[in-house]
Design a protein that fits this description.
By secondary structure, the protein is α+β, with helices and mostly antiparallel strands. The longest helix is centred in the first third of the chain and has 61 residues. It binds adenosine-5'-diphosphate (ADP). Adenosine-5'-diphosphate binds next to helix 9 and helix 10.
C-alpha cells in the first residue's frame, strides 16, 4: 500500500462509510414513516366506517319507530349536513331491485352495490366497500346494511376529506424523508471523518517516518478506542525499529572504531617486518603475533554477531526446559581449574527450583561471561559466589566477587559495547562480554543489573522469567 497520498485512502473510506450510514439511516426512517402512514390510513378508514354504521343504526330505529316518511326526511337531513355531493343514501328491498334515492342530486349509481346485496342475501348483516363513482373525483366508502327485515340501506360517504388528508400527509412525509436523507449524509460524513481521523494521523506519521523522522510518534488520545490501541501498537513498533536502527548505527560505528585498531596493529607488525632487515627466525614471532591478533579479531566479530542475534529478540531463541542451577553448576566446574590457578574460591548456592523455558546455549554463554569476569577481576585469596534463587515467575542468578569493584565513573558504562575499564586494559578481553550477557537476558524477557562499590567487590544479578513468552 502506498503512503504517498494518505488522504486518498481515508477519503474513499469516508465516502463509503458516509454512503452506507446515509442509506441505512434513510431506509430505516422510510420504513418507520411507511408504517406510520398506513397506521394513520387504517385509523381514518376505521373512523369513517364507525360513523357509517352509526348512521345505519339510527336509520333503522327511525324506520321502526316512526315509519318510512320520517326515515326519508332523516336521510335528506343527513345528506344535507354532509354537503352536496359528499354523501348518497339509498333504500332498497331485500332483492336490491328498488333502489330509491329520497331525493337530491342524480347519483347515476344504478349498478352500484349489487354485489353487496348478494352478500347480505347470503347472511351478512352489513358490508363495506370502497368504490369509484362515475363523475366524482374521489372514491366513496359504501356501507350496505339491513335496517328492517324487508329493507336495506346503502350509505356512500365521499372519501374526499380523508384522501386530501392523506395527500397532505404524503407530502409532509416526502419532505421529511428528504430532510432526513440530507441530515444522514451530513451526520454520516461527520461521523466518518471523526472515526477516521486517527487512521489519518497514523498514516501521516507513517509517511513522515518513511521520510526518516524516526522520532515521530502518533498522539494517543487515551479514549480507550480501537484507534488508540492501533496508535499504541504503531508507536511500540516504531520504537523498536528506532532501537534496531540505532543499534545498527552503533554497531557500524563500533566496527569502524574498534576493529580498526587490531587491523592497524596487524598491518603495522607485517609492514615493520617487511621493511626491516630482520633475521628469518623473527618471522616466526611476527606470524605468531599476527595469528593472535587475528584470533582476537575473530572473537570480536563472532561476539558482535551473537549480540545482533540476541538483540533480534525471542524469535531467535531455541526454547527448551533449562535448569539454570544445573547450568551454573556445570560452569563453576568448568572454571574450577582457573579458580584454583588464581587461588580464588568458588562458592555455589544453588536452588533446586531453577528451571525455566529458554535457550540453553545462550544462557550458558551469559553465565560463563559473568563467572569469567568475576574470576578475571578477583585477586588471589578472594571468593566468587554464585547464587541461584527460584521465585514463582522468575529465576535469579547472582554472581558476587571480592574483587576491586567498579568505580562510580565506570559503573554506568559496563554494559556498553566495547567498554573496558582503565584497570582492565592489561587483562584479556574485548569489552563485549557484558553487552552480550545483557542482550541474552533481555531476549528472554529478563535483565542484568550491577551493584558495585570501588574496592569492595561487584555483584551482577541476572533475572530470567520462567517463560520468555506470555502463555
Ligand atoms: P571485558 O571483561 O572483556 O573487558 P566486559 O563487557 O565483560 O568486557 O566487561 C566490561 C568492563 O566492566 C570490564 O572491562 C571491567 O572494567 C568491568 N567489569 C566487568 N565485570 C567486572 C567485575 N566482576 N569486577 C570488576 N570490573 C568488572
Amino acid at each position: 500500500m502506498s503512503l504517498r497520498n494518505p488522504t486518498r485512502l481515508t477519503g474513499k473510506l469516508a465516502f463509503k462509510l458516509t454512503l452506507w450510514y446515509a442509506v441505512i439511516f434513510t431506509v430505516s426512517c422510510f420504513g418507520a414513516l411507511i408504517v406510520f402512514y398506513f397506521a394513520t390510513v387504517s385509523i381514518i378508514r376505521h373512523r369513517t366506517d364507525l360513523e357509517l354504521l352509526k348512521d345505519a343504526k339510527e336509520f333503522s330505529s327511525t324506520y321502526t319507530t316512526k315509519g318510512i316518511g320520517e326515515l326519508k326526511a332523516a336521510m335528506l337531513a343527513e345528506m344535507e349536513s354532509e354537503g352536496a355531493g359528499n354523501m348518497f343514501i339509498r333504500l332498497a328491498d331485500r332483492k336490491g331491485e328498488d333502489f330509491t334515492l329520497p331525493s337530491g342530486p342524480d347519483w347515476r349509481v344504478s349498478d352500484l352495490g349489487k354485489a353487496s346485496i348478494n352478500r347480505l342475501s347470503a347472511g351478512e348483516t352489513y358490508y363495506f366497500e370502497t368504490l369509484a363513482v362515475p363523475g366524482r373525483p374521489y372514491r366513496f366508502r359504501v356501507l350496505t346494511s339491513g335496517i328492517a327485515p324487508e329493507m336495506i340501506v346503502q350509505i356512500g360517504q365521499s372519501l374526499e376529506d380523508d384522501e386530501r388528508l392523506m395527500e397532505a400527509c404524503r407530502e409532509v412525509l416526502s419532505v421529511t424523508l428528504g430532510l432526513i436523507a440530507a441530515l444522514a449524509a451530513v451526520g454520516g460524513f461527520l461521523f466518518a471523518r471523526r472515526a477516521l481521523a486517527g487512521v489519518e494521523e497514523v498514516t501521516k506519521t507513517a509517511n513522515e517516518i518513511s521520510k526518516g523522522a524516526f522520532s515521530r510518534r502518533v498522539d494517543v488520545k487515551g479514549r480507550g478506542e480501537e484507534i488508540d490501541t492501533l496508535a499504541e501498537t504503531f508507536n511500540r513498533m516504531v520504537g523498536k525499529i528506532e532501537i534496531l536502527i540505532r543499534g545498527m548505527k552503533e554497531m557500524t560505528d563500533n566496527i569502524a572504531h574498534d576493529l580498526k585498531s587490531p587491523i592497524t596493529r596487524i598491518r603495522g607488525i607485517a609492514e615493520a617486518t617487511l621493511t626491516g632487515n630482520n633475521p628469518l627466525k623473527d618471522f616466526d614471532l611476527v606470524s605468531g603475533s599476527i595469528v593472535e591478533e587475528c584470533d582476537r579479531l575473530l572473537v570480536m566479530i563472532n561476539t558482535m554477531l551473537d549480540i545482533s542475534e540476541a538483540e533480534a529478540g525471542v524469535a531467535n531463541l531455541a526454547i527448551e526446559l533449562v535448569d539454570v542451577a544445573q547450568v551454573v553448576r556445570e560452569a563453576c566446574d568448568l572454571f574450577q581449574p582457573v579458580a584454583e590457578n588464581n587461588q580464588v574460591r568458588i562458592d555455589q548456592r544453588l536452588t533446586r527450583n531453577g528451571t525455566i523455558r529458554g535457550d540453553k546455549m545462550k544462557i550458558q554463554r551469559a553465565v560463563s561471561n559473568l563467572l569469567d569476569n568475576a574470576l578475571k577481576y578477583t585477586p588471589q585469596g578472594g571468593t566468587v559466589t554464585a547464587l541461584v534463587e527460584g521465585e514463582p515467575d522468575r529465576v535469579i542468578l547472582t554472581v558476587n566477587d571480592t574483587g576491586p569493584g567498579i568505580s562510580d565513573h565506570d559503573l554506568p558504562h559496563v554494559f556498553d559495547r566495547f567498554f573496558r575499564g582503565d584497570r582492565s586494559r592489561s587483562l584479556p578481553g574485548t569489552g563485549l562480554g557484558l553487552n552480550l550477557t545483557l542482550a541474552i537476558a533481555r531476549a528472554h524477557g529478563g535483565d542484568v543489573k550491577v551493584n558495585s562499590i570501588s574496592g569492595q567487590g561487584s555483584t551482577f544479578t541476572m533475572t530470567l522469567p520462567r517463560s520468555p513468552l506470555p502463555h
